[in-house]
Amino acid sequence: MRLFSYLDQNKQKRVGLLRATDSKEFIDVAATDPSLPASLCDIIATEGAMARVGQLLTQPSAVIRDLAGVTYIPLVDNPGKIICLGLNYADHAAEGGHSRPDYPAFFMRGPSSLVGHLAPMIRPRVSDKFDYEAELAFVVGKKARHLTTQNALDYVAGYSAFNDGSLRDYQRKSTQWTIGKNFDATGGFGPWLVTPDELPPAADGLRIQSRLNGQIMQDANTKNFLWGIVETLVLITECMTLEPGDVVITGTPAGVGYARKPPVFMKAGDTIEIEIEGVGLLSNPIIDEA
Fold first, then answer.
1. Considering only CA atoms, which of 190, 245, 244, 181 is closest in space to residue 74?
2. How much is the pTM?
């Protein structure tokens, strides 16, 4: 299944279900079955709700709508936790002057930093060093602590695309990266939650690209993770409880703007795309903060 979050004409949050991969039509989940939760996070958290949503694909009376003109919002618009991995590709670590790490560089994002598919990512007035980062995201489906390599994938609700937009000068003002990763509306997230049954186990072997104004900037594969989905879940749940709707961002490959000579940063008028094989295309225009 491929689900997404959007606003209807009354600015109410809704969940859509694509009728098929690359379909131009979707099922309005709430209009088809009002007993289902209204938000994607609540659908994920409610036992049996995802299965009920899947049944709508074969329901003759499903309410069908057109994707054209949909106002997307972040896939999970208010996650309890957004946990990010840094330096999860050896080539990206090297281009930043880091040796191959022994442990992931974890940091956190806040919900106010997120924007949906096609919504503008905002370059803040205090910096002109706004960089792109193509990343695979996954959403936690069940409460999880002390996971193992045997059961970790049972706790993944689905996968999506993420752009970990980073203000490089602010990222380096501190020994931690958090301040450069949490400016408002700098993280693109979406458009779809792709359920694990549509992808290889642990989303392994997927091509991942970023394209700035159509030019390929990053081109890699998730098989090159230093820490894959399973290992990441095991490490995180050693120290904290993950809950339904929590989001984990898995790191970016080489090719980011600050490492180029000369550096390439995003500016107003640009369009940045993140595409992940089997997962989808996330596109965001860049605007300057008012």
1. 190
2. 0.95
